[in-house]
Amino acid sequence: MSDLEYDPTYEEHNGQHREPHCPPCFAIRIRTVQFQGIDAGQHRFTDRERDRDMTEYRKLRHQGYQPRNIFGSAELAAQASSKFEIEHKVVMAPNIRKEMESQMAAAKEMLNIPESVK
């Protein structure tokens, strides 16, 4: 009989032993491990929410933006107000946004970047 098969002598084991060489407890712990894929976080949303995100993602792409991914695109489109926020999936407070834009403008001015690129 292998260590992983049921053995009545191991009935007192419940996976709580911290001994490294307790095969029955190890087998119990292994049976409870769960793996999820990369998109596991998206499973908690309904089809309607995913469709809404996909619609907004397509709209953003048609406007020339490059969102990081589809997930959360509807909320991002509603709250973001700059290309930086959309492409980096970050929505900033208005005072931080204003400060960042002024710093970016100063950096472009200092580097003599043409107006068309600004």
Description:
It is built from five helices and no strands. The chain has helices spanning 23-31, 47-62, 73-79, 83-88, 94-110. α2 packs across α3. The longest helix is centred in the last third of the chain and has 17 residues, at 94-110.
What percent of residues are in strands? Answer: under 5%
Radius of gyration: 26 Å
Intertermini distance = 73 Å
Low-confidence stretches: none
Order of helices and strands: HHHHH
Q: What helical percentage do the residues reach? A: 40-55%
Largest sheet: none
Determine the structural class based on helices, strands and strand pairing. mainly alpha
State the shape: elongated
**DSSP helical segment count:** 5
- For the residues shown, what is the average pLDDT? 77
Number of strands: 0
List the helices and strands and how they pair.
Blueprint: H1 23-31, H2 47-62, H3 73-79, H4 83-88, H5 94-110
Helix pairs in contact: 2-3
Comma- or semicolon-separated keywords:
5 helices
Quick synopsis:
By secondary structure, the protein is mostly helical.
